[in-house]
Amino acid sequence: MVSAAANVLATIGTVLWCIQLIPQIIHNYKRKNTEGLNEWMILLWCLCAPFFAIYFVSEESSIPIQIQPHLFGFFCWVVYLQVLYYPPVSRSRKGIVLRAGLFLVFWVAAEVGFVIPLRRIYQNGTTWPVLVFGILGSILLALGLLPPYYELAKRQGRVVGINFVFLATDLSGALFSLASLAVGEIDTMGLILYSICASLEIGIFLSHAIWWLRIGRKASSKDGELTQVNTETEKIVEKIPDSDDSNLDAFKSPGTLV
């Protein structure tokens, strides 16, 4: 029963980590802008995907687990292209194609070059070379969540550019994965990775919440009052006859000397 529960929780976490970046991709496409979405964050996540792919394929994990880093890496790659293409980065198309191509070549070469020899070593009972790739992937994934804190510091803690649905999905994936370890077999590396990711993502949520309580709520209140004043002014202006344009102009700009 415990094993079944652990498998279900792990599967949910894996699925969430497969699709987590889709809301961010849609968000970037609609805004046509990636301000606040740090380029280094996405680059580090792109780089961690090949290491995770090598790790899971080499130790012959279940098919869903092997698919997960490939889907995650693909969506990271798409987001990275968006960051390069949309403002504020806006690199040339030649530069974008070059970077995108180099990453794909690196991924394919690394996976093809390491998986076969590592799988043989792993089957012979030597596990540490495979584990190195898992550790490297975990470090890069965790480091990728540090650049958003630089963006938060620039904006007094406000989250800009990061889609909250994406962030919530990513956090949920980490929490479900932690829950699977709690009721199943303890994986020290997974425990550390999921805990770090969950902690840093909760920190991002808390940062924005604190910003909203300190600054955002007051700004929203002022914007609401200003909108109400403008609406009432427009209603009054609509009732004024159009016969005397000079008087109408004077009313619209009460601070202007006529």
Q: Could you list the spans in which at least 5 consecutive residues all have pLDDT below 50?
A: 250-258
Largest sheet: none
Total beta strand runs: 0
Helix proportion of residues, in percent?
over 70%
Q: Estimate the global geometry from the Cα principal axes.
A: globular
Structural class call reads mainly alpha
Give the end-to-end Cα distance, rounded to a whole number of Å: 83 Å
Compute the average pLDDT: 86
Number of helices: 10
Beta percentage is: under 5%
Number of domains: 1
Order of SSEs, N→C? Answer: HHHHHHHHHH
**Computed CA radius of gyration, to the nearest angstrom:** 25 Å
Which SSEs are present, and which pair or pack?
Blueprint: H1 2-19, H2 22-31, H3 39-58, H4 63-85, H5 93-123, H6 128-143, H7 147-154, H8 164-183, H9 188-239, H10 245-252
In short:
This protein is an all-alpha fold and 258 residues long.
Walk me through what this model shows:
This protein is mainly α. The chain has one domain (2-214). The protein is 80% helix and 0% strand. It is built from ten helices and no strands. This is PQ-loop-domain-containing protein. Keywords: Membrane, Transmembrane, Transmembrane helix. It comes from Ogataea philodendri. It is a multi-pass membrane protein.
Can you tag this structure with a few keywords?
single chain, 258 residues, mainly alpha, 10 helices, 80% helix, globular, disordered C terminus
